[in-house]
Batch of 3 targets.
Target 1
Amino acid sequence: MRKTCCIVILCFFYAAAAAQSVAVINGKPVELKEFMWVYQKHRPGSGKTTLTQLISFLNIYVDFKLKVLDACNLQLDKDSTYLAEVKNYEAAFVASLPADLQQRDHSLVINEYKEALLLFNISERKIWDIMADSESDIHNYYTSNVTVYDSKPYDEVKSDVAADFQQQLECNWVTALRNKYKVTIDQTALQRLIR
């Protein structure tokens, strides 16, 4: 009986947490508070927010969270250099704030830094290191898409081709992550945000 009560209580807490989220990524909710904090920091313009804008931004944020999840699955969050950088940043952040502001949004700022650092580290592995060693792949990409570049010589459009190839790597990575991990977006929660 005790075990059943515990399960029911845990289900209630999970349902309450899910109700306070805008999405669930691989079983982990993206909290409404976190999403709105990030959205308001990066929000384009100051007009009324539309559902389309929220969904668009949330999809970008979900892609970001998927990349962070990928980094954690590769144990990059356990790396000693990463842990030292986070510790140093948090100490500097706390020291720079007035005492009365040290608790407000502290966890959101630190989490944002941690995740941004993980994104940088995983992007280095998944994109930039590949780009550095892929001159022939970039040239092959150009050859396959030469009409996109108006048949200009490779040397003339090399930087554009490299940027497009990098974008293709990024798209492939995000597609693989979206296929690997379950993502659920709560459109009802998003609609409540615009009312």
Note: The domain at 2-193 is CATH 1.10.4030.10 (Triger factor/SurA peptide-binding fold).
Target 2
Amino acid sequence: MLPALNPNSALFLDIDGTLIDLAATPQSVEVPLALPAQLRQTQAKLNGALAILSGRKLADIDRLLGPGLPSAAEHGAILRDASGKLTQQVQRLASYDKWLKTLQAEIIDMPGVLIEEKEFSLVVHYRQAPKFEAELSQLVDHLIGGSEDAVLMLAHCAFELKPRGGNKADALAWFMQQPPFSGRIPVFIGDDITDEPAIEKAIELGGIGLHVARDFAGQTQAVRDWVIL
């Protein structure tokens, strides 16, 4: 059984699959009505030391959880500190527009496959069409082959073509050097392959790294209950 959240913690939270259940598409997720207020309640009791570390765009984070929370958007490509100041960590992919056109053309005959356009990255979602996983894997590998500014990130039923740099582990470490997070015990909760580096970083910095499947029986409700102070 997990101990209660320490009031001296600096709390870092993923969104999809952690605070809210995964859905067929990124746009169709459902946010419990009480969640935004509950997060701000916990944030206040932690003296402001709560941040969102998500692969989503910053605008999506604000749409889902309400505006203004300290956040690392697009896996740390954009950082918003407690004062609201934005810091850009990466540059847009040089091949972004060319790759977008190629992906859009290739998935015409792949019903259920979706392309998500972020500010810095492109994501191919195949949750509704898992039979195309191998074909899509070959496609994104071909696109990214030889690229000097891009990396391929694997996620739940998704392939993401993203700029090098800007990851959740580095974002967590960055926040831990900023007020009101510095001097506190880092706690990160995530659910995906993309969250494992941040889980490890929290532990490396003397804190706790938790995984939804391993520590909360795969239940986002259990996560929501645990983070409420």
Note: The first strand starts at residue 9 and ends at 13.
Target 3
Amino acid sequence: MKSSEQVRKAETLRTLHGGGDILLLPNVWDVAGARIIEEAGFPAIATSSGGVAFSAGYPDGQKVSREKMLAVVACIASAVGVPVTADAESGYGSSPEDAGRTARAVIEAGAVGMNLEDSPGDAGHPLADLWAQLEKIRAVRQAAAGLGVPLVLNARTDVYLLQVGEPATRYDQTLRRLSAYREAGADCVFVPGLGDRATIGRLVADLHCPVNILAGPGSPPIAELKRLGVARVSLGSGPMRAGLGLLRRVADELKACGTYRGLEDAPSYAEVNRLLEKPVKS
């Protein structure tokens, strides 16, 4: 991809966070899924680190290497015409240099956005030290500036997702972290695990910046999230796990009944072939 095209896509992705509509991201984990989402009319594609890891035979949480993760991102970015934002977990390392290296690799893969979470995957220390996380965010910004691509950084805190601390302390801890991430250079902030309508609205009002919510069963509908001021809604590994759930139902039906009703909603062989006629750039 030419640098000018990548810059244009990055600017487009940033603009999508500030318009009148919520940016909806049903996350993908392979090229076929990315092309389905693009054809459905979504203006951007987001990858799911969990989805990519699961499909490669790994659990989530930086168990799959940066190289394997971003090889999938590169295939997706080369296969679609819309901007791609990559889930880069916690940056594949604990240092600012690791985060900067990951940001450069994300851009070199053709993506123009990046998720960076503050959970290092250590059960004893569920959240990274705040100062260390700010240094990682600054390193991502510096790396992107060095390549001349205005990478859209979505900085995530897992306070609610991992239920860190006493419930009464979680809101203030989340607000403090996300405010600091924004000041350090994040374009959007992400708070998975938060589903309470009143708390979402309060957080959006207090942050004064684009907020990403992870949606799933039980989450407020999109119309309500829009009313609350949410800028971005993603589905994480949900679509990939839903596909596994369908596969399980197909297998159970085949074994128990010898029938095939679970396949009725599948795209046709010809349709999938058509979606993939354009080869992926190597």
Note: The chain has one domain: 3-238.
